[in-house]
């Protein structure tokens, strides 16, 4: 990450997350270094898939990874985070306020089929659900010509999940992430 202002905001976000996590379990990490190394670095890898005019939906945002990192590092986008857990949504709203993230919107609700969240050019999720479930829940949220960029694990598991994908309706690409610790991939899915 080259922009010093973005870097500073990411550090502030991570430190606030660690503090909040001490009293309200929002994720498994225990140190800022671990969050930066394991979560922020991975979250930043989505940036080449994002364009300035994107409207982004992050499903099951949890503690804000990747959603908050996307909003900070892509200030021209409109980034929407959906989180059903009230504690986590409260934390995300606090981050929006504290870091003055005008391009961030937090929705404290469940993602359900035919929801009222609107339409987005890019939908992402990390550690949320199977590919099929994500597509089913959010299909009405994807603009015509939009795409999914999903954070996923091993290629074998991804291929297993993709067997249920309707390839007459969707085309996909599996892209390996630069991760030295474990096998991680993006799955980019577009409507045909």
Question: How would you describe what is shown here?
Answer:
The mean pLDDT is 94. α1 crosses α2 (32-44) and α1 runs antiparallel to α3. This protein starts with a helix and ends with a strand. A 7-stranded mixed sheet has the order 3-2-1-4-5-7-6, sandwiched between helices. β1 (55-59), α3 (67-73) and β2 (78-82) form a beta-alpha-beta unit. It is α/β, with parallel strands linked by helices. The protein has helices at 4-23, 32-44, 67-73, 86-98, 131-138, 155-162, and strands at residues 55-59, 78-82, 104-107, 120-126, 142-152, 170-176, 185-191. The protein has a single domain, classed as Rossmann fold (3-Layer(aba) Sandwich). Helices cover 36% and strands 24% of the residues. It contains 6 helices and 7 strands.
Produce the secondary structure layout.
Blueprint: H1 4-23, H2 32-44, E1 55-59, H3 67-73, E2 78-82, H4 86-98, E3 104-107, E4 120-126, H5 131-138, E5 142-152, H6 155-162, E6 170-176, E7 185-191
Parallel strand pairs: 1-2, 1-4, 2-3, 4-5
Antiparallel strand pairs: 5-7, 6-7
Helix pairs in contact: 1-2, 1-3
Content of β-strand: 15-25%
- Which class best fits the helix and strand makeup? alpha/beta
Spans of at least 5 consecutive residues with low confidence: none
The spatial strand order of the largest sheet comes to 3-2-1-4-5-7-6
Number of helices: 6
Number of domains: 1
Percent range for helical residues?
A: 25-40%
* CATH level 4 superfamily: Vaccinia Virus protein VP39
Give me the CATH fold name. Rossmann fold
- Counting DSSP E segments of at least 2 residues, the number of strands comes to 7
Return the CATH class: Alpha Beta
Oligomer: single chain
- Rg calc: 16 Å
How far apart lie the N and C ends?
A: 33 Å
Give the overall form.
globular
Tell me the major beta sheet. 7 strands, mixed
Named at the architecture level, the CATH assignment is 3-Layer(aba) Sandwich
Give the overall pLDDT as a whole number: 94
């Amino acid at each position: 990450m080259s922009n010093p202002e973005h870097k500073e905001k990411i550090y502030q976000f991570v430190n606030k997350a660690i503090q909040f996590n001490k009293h309200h379990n929002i994720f498994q990490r225990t140190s800022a270094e671990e969050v930066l190394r394991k979560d922020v670095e991975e979250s930043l890898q989505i940036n080449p898939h994002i364009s300035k005019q994107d409207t982004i939906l992050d499903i099951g945002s949890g503690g804000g990874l990747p959603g908050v990192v996307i909003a900070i590092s892509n200030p021209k986008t409109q980034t929407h985070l959906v989180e059903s857990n009230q504690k986590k949504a409260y934390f995300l709203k606090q981050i929006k306020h504290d870091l003055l993230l005008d391009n961030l919107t937090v929705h404290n609700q469940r993602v359900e089929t035919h929801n009222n969240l609107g339409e987005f050019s890019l939908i992402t999720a990390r550690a949320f659900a199977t590919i099929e479930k994500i597509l089913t829940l959010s299909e009405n949220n994807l603009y015509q010509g939009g795409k999914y960029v999903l954070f996923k694990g091993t290629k074998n598991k991804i291929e297993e999940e993709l067997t249920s994908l309707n390839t007459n309706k969707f085309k996909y690409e599996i892209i390996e992430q630069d991760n030295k610790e474990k096998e991680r991939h993006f799955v980019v899915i577009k409507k045909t």
